[in-house]
Amino acid sequence: MGGACSRPQDALWAQPRFRFGAPPRPGSRGAAVPVATPIPSRPGFSLGSEAPVPVDSRSPDLSPARPGAGAAGAQPDMPRGLRSQLRLRVLLLLLLLLPPPPPPLAGALELNDPAGPGEEAEEPGSGQAWPSFPFRDLRKWARAAGALSRRYWALFRCRVWPETCSLDKEAPAGALGWSLPLLGQQYLDILTTWYCSFQDCCDHGDCRVSNNFTGLQSDLSVRLHGQHLAQELVLTTVKSYLELPRPDKALALSFHGWSGTGKNFVARLLAENLYRDGLRSDCVKVFITMIHFPHPQYVDLYKEQLTEQVRKTQEHCHQTLFIFDEAEKLHPGLLEALGPHLERQVLENHRAESSRTIFLFLSNLGGNVINEVVLGLLKAGLSREDITMEHLESGLQAEIVASTDSGFGHSRLVKENLIDFFVPFLPLEYHHVRLCARDAFLSQELLYTEEALDEIAKMMVYVPKEEQIFSSQGCKSVSQRINYFLP
Fold it and tell me: Of 166, 171, 213, 358, which is most buried, counting CB atoms within 10 Å of its CB?
């Protein structure tokens, strides 16, 4: 699935416009006719205006030519002016990737400035006062700038050559604590789009499948808190399934647990690491029950639309991901309509490429029994990390089947064992909420203190009433609570 690619919403080649100049002189084989060069359609970025393209006067070809394409695959010489312009733009883009130098740290002048605080150092032989800069902080800035530049390069390389991606160990940002800012992401988008304008790029479909299992493993271990069972089960099952040469069945995973425990977060991590465009990929479809299927009286229409959507997506992509949020609220008719897509298929043509489909069902169903089992095991002296699937699997499935508030447990998906794994998400504790608060500060590039993390964690409601061990909302609403601690 190699090849450089841009975002799917960015047209790689704009509609060419042609502007004709003076007609060729009689007897000449060709004339330089100014033709608008196809450019990436990203607003605010232009590679160049117009470049002369040789056109034979006897049989003019008005089809747009890609940069660098010539007759019989020959590479014509690029005009010197255009070559210099391209080099200048590349240099400017690379320079833009570097962040501006930070101001000196507090107290640095007192340690490094011989003129003392509040004074300016005077350059020898001149009457002008020059502001001094602490050389120790300059070295720190240089190291941090180099680390950040390497990080930019690693991200750019993963976008253009995903097969060589190795972001499992991120380059440290240096002593100044820099991270990749939003402006830097925009520069990366521009640079990637510019690069793709000279390459054979694709903008949708299977060519944008990345299957970055190293990145998935890193995200699940670093960014997901308190869910060792989900971390191991999701990574193992998804990786094993996608590495099968010819799978004969779709992989169906059902996530269960209280709200805020990370079910949607894991679904998003899967999309981001399996597809370059994440949840925006043409091969990923997200359905939220109360938004996409709100009226039970239209269930027949919903069934037809859902079946057609699944079929079209599978025809478009050989690897697809379908996410159903609030799955316990799905109408029984919709659950039955999904049955044929989860059944085992007979592979008739052994040479044909087999499609790979993953279904994720996210549900709060079974969250109470998960919490009760975990609480009992913790009271018995078992550590959280020692809890295994054997402790939870049978009770979770029994709770799902016995539920009278949902038709999910009574559907053929459960009764005929079309769900491959029921993945439990454990209730989160105080220290997990603190980690979520820290991640929320870091995601917005804000400074935080340990006292602020404690205050945010204490703002959450904990259950049971006596022990107060588990956060009733998990990490939900934590990102909004950091607003109380902003200056």
Answer: 358
Report the run of H or E that residue 332 belongs to, with start and end.
Answer: helix 332-342
Looking at 89-93, 199-203, 402-406, which range is the least confident one?
199-203
> Using an 8 Å Cβ cutoff, are 363 and 254 in contact?
yes
Report the b/e string of 55-92 with b at 16+ CB within 10 A: beeeeeeeebbebeeeeeeeeeeeeeeeeeebeebeee
Cα–Cα distance for residue pair 424/357, rounded to 1 Å: 21
Which residue(s) pair with 18 in the sheet? 35
DSSP 114-141: TT-TT--EEPTT-S-EE----HHHHHHH
Nearest to 212 by CA among 173, 152, 286, 155: 155
For the chain, the first-to-last Cα distance in angstroms comes to 47
- The packing angle between helices 182-196 and 80-96, to 10°, is 160
Using CA atoms, how far residue 159 sits from 156, 167, 195, 441, in Å, is 5, 11, 11, 26
Contact 361, 248 (CB under 8 A): no
Residue 100 in tokens: 């501006």
Cα(386)–Cα(368) distance, integer angstroms? 20
Asked if 229 and 397 touch (Cβ cutoff 8 Å), the reply is: no
Residues in the chain, total: 487
SS3 202: strand
pLDDT tens sequence across 360-415: 999 999 999 999 999 999 999 999 999 999 999 999 999 999 998 899 999 999 99
The CA–CA distances, whole Å, from 329 to 286, 295, 363, 418, 425 equal 15, 11, 9, 18, 19
Q: What are phi and psi of 440, to 5 degrees?
A: -65, -40
471 touches 261 (CB < 8 A): no
Q: Are 313 and 199 in contact (CB under 8 A)?
A: no
